[in-house]
Amino acid sequence: MTMNLLLAAAPGSEKLDPMSHVLPHTLFGSDWFTNHHFMALMAFVVGVVALLYVSMRVPVKADTAEGYVTRGRFTQIFEVLCVFLREEMTRPLLGDLTDKYIKYIWSIFFFALLGNLLGLLPISAFFHLLGVEPLSHAGGAMTGNINFTGGLALISLFMMVFVGIKENGFGFIKHMWPVPFKPLPLLPIMLPVGLLVFVLELVGLLIKSFALCVRLFANMVAGHLVLGSLIILALTAPMLGKSASVLGAAVFSFLELFVAFLQAYIFTFLTVIFISLGAISHDDHDEHHAGLDEGAMPGDSMDEMLTVTGGGQ
After folding, report:
1. Which of 6, 36, 38, 25 is nearest to 217 (CA)?
2. pTM of the entire structure?
3. C-alpha distance across the termini of the chain, in Å
């Protein structure tokens, strides 16, 4: 992004504007294919290539224990991320259902992460230097486009409903309609109340998806705008400010790199939470939390609880 703004500041270039890196630009003379479509396609291709490369370097059969050791820095980092997402993020929420749906969790995380990271690369500047003008606006963060974050949120909404119905069947719908149909004399009163609760539950699902969409979109756009504005301020400042622009751009670029990982993690974590709310029935939740005193965590052992309460003496 820094290189894009530096090129924009060159003589004869367009007016320096941080919004140029955020707003969509059409490519190849098309009316609908934008740089964000191009970046989404790049994220998909890079993700598939990375997965194929990693899958060929992860051992599945070996004669010795050392043969199962994953080799290669990139493959090991990828494996660590996958294990963390499965064991530390997903399993505490989905439990035994983790292995059934972890592929979706991995997919949504790495797709959002690649979208964030590719948006930090000076792709448009690279094509501009090569003289490929049709791709001079090819860069940008696809996650800074609300249409793409909305698409990811809709997929997560589908997974919330799909997993809930698949795991609980009619119980998922029954949970959304908690009002009983008896006694019959009260049915004229209870029916409107049940309908209202059902509508509120549906609205709640939409609000969860909307929160996923807006959170990722707003944070990525805000980060790019702040970084772009600070770089422009440094470029248009006196000589001392121009000297400090390199350091400032580097510092804020590392900050955006952290934000790229953080926002992909938050989007995935919230998705897992929302899916688990429908996938795990309330009976399972009650059984899981049975016997816990106020302030005790689900991971506390019974011996620890007895020691704290004095019951182990």
Report:
1. 36
2. 0.78
3. 64
